[in-house]
Each structure stands twice: as structure tokens, then as C-alpha cells.
Fold this protein.
Amino acid sequence: MKVKERFKLSRFISGEKAGVNSITLTHRRIFILPTLRGMGFVALIILLLLIAFVYNNNLAYLLAFLLASVFFITILHSFKSLAGLVLTQSHSQPVFAGEAVGFEIIVANPGNVKRFNLHAKLESDYEFTLKAQETKRVLLYSASHKRGWHEMGAMTLSSTYPLGFFRAWSPLQFPAKALVYPKPNAAELPFPEAEGRQADTLSNQRRKKGSDDFYGLKEYQHGDPVRHIHWKAFAKGQGLFSKQYAGDNQSELWLNYNQTPGYNVEDRLSQLCRWVIDAEKTGLKYGFTVAGVKLDPNHGLLHYQKCLKVLALF
């Protein structure tokens, strides 16, 4: 690394540019400065030296030099509290706009020394201790404000071990990002027309779905609602089956961006997001047409996530 890049102010605040999924803390990434307690300790040492000089007191000199040696040895222990730790980014779950995004970081201590008073910070804080050879998962949160990809940004791992005289810290950047879906509309508007018929309101749809009669079993297929699984048959070793209801043959629902009410793009996406959530909850098969992307009518977690991803990246 060039000298000019080594002393850039951004390295002390946000760390080096993101590019790798795993980072080992070395002397290049760890910075140390005295804390207020440490500065107070320095003032005490200076005061003792002045007293020793004025009164020519050897015991005062001895005490001052003893405290100074403790102060300087603490620098090494503060550095070792972070040195050698390995941090690796893990997965992050999609959220809706306005919710906090959780980024999981795996912190591993490959050494034989216990690490005390570790403090990880993003927008949230997390304090922990690592035993020798221990690995811990740390979940840090960052607020999301708009849909799309939300980057993690710079996190900081720090420690004031052992005496609080120094703060050793390492600002780190990972290429981690999470998908943020549009914020669902709070209003429960009726579903759009389905196959030429005006759909019922959401409340009527839920009542209808709840009153459907059970009439048989079918072999489980990927995408079938979990609540329809016949668990008793599965527990008896008879196989995995889904319950069928009279309402399972109802008309398919199509969700189209151009036919969605709203004053602007975000309003329309918000309403589509609400319809996708409600259709999935009620077990409806719903098709999806947005920005040239067309998904055939289906339901289930995979279809649900595909639809919301299209809305997030619109």
C-alpha cells in the first residue's frame, strides 16, 4: 500500500474499500488512540513527575515510571485484543422499506487467548466476548428507507481492553447487501378483476376461503401452502400430502402494474406489494405482470419472493 493511501483519513473512519467476504485483522487494519481515561492517566503521571522533580523524591519517581510502564504495555494488550480475529460476512434477509435490515457477521477467534470487551457497531451496537477457538455470529442492524438493494456500509469492531486507557478499533467494509421490498400499502383495497369478474374485497375473500369444504388429499407439490400439509399422514410414514378444498379451483388472480391505482410509481408498487402479501396469505394463485416481467399464476414461497423482488428492483 502506498504511503499516501495508508494515511488517508477515510481509512481511520470507514476502512478500506469493500471487496472480500472475509477479513483478518492485522496491524494494517487496527488503529489505537488513548481514551479520556487514558489521557487522565497521562496527566497523573506528569503530575507525579513534577512532584518528584520539585521535592527530589525517589519514591515519586519510581511510582511515576511504574505507572508509565503500565501505560505503554497496555498499548500492546489493546492491539492484541483485536489482532488475528477473522470476520466473515454471512447472509442477510430481505425486509420491507422502513424496517431494519439485519446483517450477520461471523467473528472467529483462531487463537488460544480469550478476547474481552469486544464491541461491534453498525447503526446498532453489540457487545460480546470470544473464548479461545470460539466462533460467534453477530447480527447488526441498519435502517432501510427505500426499496432496492441496501448496502451494509462500514462497521466498526473495537475494544478498550484491558484497562480502558486505549481504544483499539478497526473499521471494516464488506460487499454485503440486502434486498428491500416496497412498503406495503396500509389500505386493504379489493383485488383487481379476475377473468372478467370483479373480485370480492379482501375481507370477503378471507371469509370465503375460510368456509371452503375439505374434499380430499393430493400428493404434495412444491409451492403448496404449508398449512395444507396433512401432517398426520406424514407422521405415520404414509408420505407427504396436501389437503384440497373446494375453493382451490377458484379463478386465477392477475396483478398488473398498469391497472394498479396510485398517484405515482411508489404508490402503485406499494399497492402491488400489499396484493401479493394478501394473495399469498389467502392461498390464491396469482399471476404477475410488471415492467415487462410476466410470471404465471402460482403461489408459495418461491413465487412470492420472485414477485416481491421484481417490485423491489423496478
